[in-house]
Design a protein that fits this description.
Distance between the termini: 85 Å
Bound molecules: adenosine-5'-triphosphate, magnesium ion
Low-confidence stretches: none
Number of helices: 12
Structural class: alpha/beta
CATH superfamily of the largest domain: P-loop containing nucleotide triphosphate hydrolases
Number of domains: 3
Radius of gyration: 26 Å
Mean pLDDT: 87
Helix content: 25-40%
CATH class of the largest domain: Alpha Beta
CATH architecture of the largest domain: 3-Layer(aba) Sandwich
Length: about 450
């Protein structure tokens, strides 16, 4: 009797069924079940990592050597937790065309001067990579390029002469001949990634997996691998802007939520050591609706310009449109302003934008968003040296947020001398910082602090 029964796996959610179905009963997507042969069970004691097959006393486990591999590009090294740990598996994900291959090639070429780096390309030919390397002016003398998509061939090459760092661009193009499903399917992506994971640990090779965020967001995309890998980096950015933010969403070897800021130029990704300065460089002065907010990105304060515009609506239902902030958050704050401060947005369209294509996800942006809305509503500009941050509750109360000293330090560096912040933060600040701060407890306090005499 054959022990290799066929199963059908949903490529959307991973649901497994013994028979084919047109629609997945779990996620309800149509035509997502694909046939695959289940893997044979591995031999006895074949654990995922060398030496893990016997229980060990925690104190007796040999320590991991932390010889982190640094590139000298601070924005890159910081996001990895100040360097790459040998033997770690890193997923670099992002939208198609955002600059993943460029960033990886540039940074790995820097390391290649000291360590052997193998760049496996399943998407581009070696000639294309050479052209890119020439445009980016990277030192390509020690960088090995291998155009291959069959996992078993890649593993053979690695075992023959192991590199210190391996890059797979992209994981969606690699397939294993152990599975009879197409490359890019959920099973192939998972199988290849887990085999590479074992290889990373057993051979002590650091591996970068490039993954495209697909249209559906999850189909065989990076999300299916997030739990497996040690570090997840997302390269984000608005295609119309040159800014690219490299964000650590998960890091087993460092702080997560750390960001690195780059600018996409003809010669590749250039690091931006002072993003606040660049983000504020085109800020208009004396214009209503514009407010500077200090947001924390990981351990890093970032000054960003938040813009709002309200105008009389021509629709029965006024529009609430925002870019860079959460739409629900905007609706909530508009409701708080109406209920607690007596503003009336019922006949007004509201538009909000964060300059530079940055996304403000922190509640600390609430107070600035309210300030921008009031500023455009009253057509009164916020003084140019003001920076505003704090969380706003449904009762119109202003709540404290973390990292007050770091936020104020960053704002002072760029010449801001007035910080409108929650009173609970202001009370706990050192006296030398406190002098420049206006602590606010409620929306009324905010209106008084920023728009005295305007209502
Ligand atoms: N000659 C050039 N000058 C300036 N920018 C360029 C040039 N060629 C490419 N680019 C930029 O590089 C981007 C593509 O970068 P890259 O190939 O690294 O992205 P990717 O995320 O790896 O894309 P893919 O999803 O196709 O693999 C383009 O979107 C473009 O902005
Ligand atoms: Mg690419």
């Amino acid at each position: 009797m054959s022990d290799r029964k066929l199963v059908f796996r949903c490529q959307q959610c991973g649901y497994v069924s013994p028979k084919w179905m047109g629609r997945c009963p779990d996620c309800q997507h149509w035509h997502t079940l694909l046939e695959e042969s289940p893997r044979k069970a591995e031999g006895k004691g074949a654990g995922p990592f060398p030496g893990r097959s016997v229980p060990m006393v925690l104190a007796e486990i040999p320590e991991l050597k932390e010889d982190r591999i640094l590139t000298g590009v601070r924005e890159w090294d910081r996001v990895l937790g100040w360097g790459l740990i040998p033997g770690s598996l890193v997923l670099l994900a992002g939208d198609p065309g955002i600059g993943k291959s460029t960033l990886l090639l540039q940074n790995l070429a820097r390391v290649a001067q000291q360590q052997k780096v193998l760049y496996v390309s399943g998407e581009e030919s070696p000639q294309q990579l050479k052209m890119r390397a020439a445009r980016l002016k990277v030192d390509a003398t020690n960088l090995f390029i291998y155009a291959e998509t069959l996992l078993e061939s890649i593993i053979d090459v690695i075992l023959h002469d192991p590199p210190a760092i391996l890059a797979i661009d992209s994981i969606q193009t690699i397939y294993s001949n152990m599975l009879e499903v197409a490359p890019g399917s959920i099973s192939q992506v998972r199988e290849c990634a887990s085999k590479l994971m074992r290889m990373a640990k057993s051979e002590n090779i650091s591996i970068f997996l490039v993954g495209h965020v697909t249209k559906e967001g999850s189909i065989a995309g990076p999300r299916t691998l997030e739990h497996l890998v040690d570090t997840v980096l997302y390269l984000e950015g608005d295609r119309t802007h040159a800014f690219r933010v490299l964000r650590a969403m998960k890091n087993r070897y460092g702080s997560c939520n750390e960001i690195g800021v780059f600018e996409m130029k003809e010669a590749g990704m250039e690091e931006v050591p002072n993003p606040s300065q660049l983000l504020l460089s085109e800020r208009p002065r004396g214009v209503s609706g514009s407010v500077v907010v200090c947001s924390m990105e990981g351990t890093r304060p970032l000054l960003v310009e938040l813009q709002a515009l309200v105008s009389a609506t021509g629709w029965t239902q006024p529009r609430r449109t925002c870019m860079g902030v959460d739409n629900n958050r905007l609706s909530l704050l508009v409701a708080v302003l109406e209920k607690k401060a007596g503003f009336n947005f019922a006949q007004q369209d509201v538009f909000v934008n964060v300059a530079g294509g940055v996304r403000l996800l922190e509640p600390a942006a609430d107070l600035a968003l309210i300030t921008a809305l009031v500023s455009t509503y009253l057509d009164r500009a916020v003084p140019a040296d003001y920076v505003v941050w704090g969380e706003v509750g449904l009762a119109g109360e202003v709540r404290g947020v973390g990292h007050a000293a770091a936020r104020i330090g960053e704002a002072r560096k760029l010449g801001f001398s007035r910080h409108v912040i929650p009173v609970s933060n202001a009370d706990r600040l050192a006296p030398e910082l406190n002098g420049e701060c206006v602590g606010v407890r409620s929306l009324q306090d905010l209106l008084e602090a920023v728009f005295t005499g305007s209502r």
